[in-house]
Design a protein that fits this description.
With about 200 residues, the protein is of the alpha+beta class. It has a single domain, classed as Nucleoside Triphosphate Pyrophosphohydrolase. The protein has 6 helices and 9 strands, in the order H-H-E-E-H-E-E-E-E-H-E-E-E-H-H. Strands 3, 4, 5, 6, 7, 8 and 9 form a 7-stranded mixed β-sheet that branches. A two-stranded antiparallel ribbon has the order 1-2.
């Protein structure tokens, strides 16, 4: 049995019902092959480590020599205060990944822009050292190109700080141990522009 299937068995009926309140945001679960399963409350998914759909956006400057990193708000359920890629979120039930990426780029950074599919990766379950919540996601990663001078108005419920960093600064962030585990995995797969 794969980890996704095992994690899906951890929830009990009474605990799950509590998270299906009308105002509770839902995420779609995934099976071992990435097939979409039933929706579950996002807090429940993170509480028990149920594998579910996610999106990440890596925002490059126009020359692809810097990327935008964001510090997760202190109120986030997983990895609060850690640095991560520009946008980390989840598609709504039945929402295409690319539509979710465009929507969240605007909701988190107030930028309307183009996103390009880059790759997907399955990670987790991995437990947050701060909250004890789990991340276990099939993450569809997108690239966006932004002008460094473009005004960014981050949603403070999601992001407490942001900055443009180069490859050397990213390496220092990685050494600090204050980046999210999915961002560390994304960084293993990205290619920077070669400097002249």
């Amino acid at each position: 049995m794969c980890a996704a299937a095992k994690a899906n068995q951890l929830s009990t009926g009474s605990e799950t019902r509590r998270y299906f309140e009308p105002r509770m945001r839902l995420v779609e679960t995934i099976d071992c092959n990435g097939g979409i399963g039933p929706a579950i409350g996002i807090l429940e998914a993170h509480r028990v480590g149920t594998a579910h759909r996610a999106i990440s956006i890596l925002a490059w400057n126009t020359s692809r020599t810097k990327m935008l990193v964001t510090r997760r708000a202190a109120s986030k359920a997983t990895w609060p205060g850690f640095w991560s890629n520009a946008v980390c979120s989840h598609p709504l039930p039945r929402e295409p990944y690319v539509a979710a990426a465009r929507r969240r780029l605007f909701e988190e950074l107030r930028i309307r822009g183009t996103v390009t599919p880059a790759f997907r990766m399955l990670y987790g379950p991995v437990r947050c050292p701060v909250s004890g919540a789990f991340e276990h996601e099939l993450d569809h990663v997108f690239y966006a190109r932004l002008d460094e001078n473009e005004p960014i108005r981050p949603n403070r419920a999601e992001i407490s700080a942001l900055r443009w960093v180069d490859q050397e600064q990213i390496a220092a962030l990685q050494m600090s141990g204050k980046i999210t585990p999915w961002f560390a995995m994304i960084l293993e797969r990205v290619r920077w522009a070669k400097l002249a």
